[in-house]
Amino acid sequence: MRQPHYIHYDSSSINPVLGNASFFNVVLQSDSLQQKLYNNDTSGISKIIYNVHVERLFMTGANVPSLLQKDKIQANSIEFYKPIITVLSTGKNEIQKFTAADSLALYEKITGKFKSIQAKEIKITDASIAFAKGKNSPHTNLQSVFINL
Q1: pLDDT by residue (tens digit) across 55-98?
Q2: Helix (H, G, I), strand (E, B) or coil at 141
Q3: Contacts for 90 with CB less than 8 Å, ≥ 6 apart
Q4: Is 128 helix (H, G, I), strand (E, B) or coil?
Q5: Is residue 100 within 8 Å of 144, Cβ to Cβ?
Q6: How far apart (Å, rounded) are the C-alpha atoms in residues 95 and 86?
Q7: pTM to 2 decimals?
């Protein structure tokens, strides 16, 4: 079930000639779902709620017109600098596994309505990932995660 979410950023810097684009303090989250969780109303919400905060999203060699049309992303490099990803499990107190379907759901939320994303290199620099059950403190924290694809 796709749940409403929003993407917000504080500021951006785009150079269409060079194809460089930076977005600062990017936030992707589903406030209405979190509000229901904190009001103890978990009926009709996803079993997994994601919140993603990225200090800086930086692209080089990007096709800026298609990026601004929110149609597709083509770039030489995309870097997510200092993302903080929080994964909240809702529902009954059962052991839940984070599955490939959960990874795909997170990917679809991050990519939004883009039809295509192509990059020669994707970097995730100094990420923090936390897994929590409902309103409880995180039970698993991964710190200083670096990924280069």
Answers
A1: 999 999 998 887 777 768 889 999 999 999 888 877 666 666 76
A2: strand
A3: 37, 42, 45, 46, 47, 48, 49, 134
A4: strand
A5: no
A6: 18
A7: 0.76
